Amino acid sequence: MTQARSLIDEGGKRTDGRTANELRDINIKVGVVKNADGSALIEFGKNKIVVGVYGPREVHPKHMAQTDRCILRCRYHMTPFSTDTRKNPAPSRREVEISKVIRESLEPALMLEDYPRATIDVYIEVLQADGGSRCAGITAASVALADAGINMRDIVSACAAGKVDEKIVLDINDTEDKEGGADMPVAFMPNLKQITLLQLDGRLDKDQFNACLKEAISGCERVYEIQRASLMQKYFGNEPELKNGN
Ligand code: ADP
Question: Chain-centre distance of CA 217, in angstroms?
Answer without folding.
Answer: 13
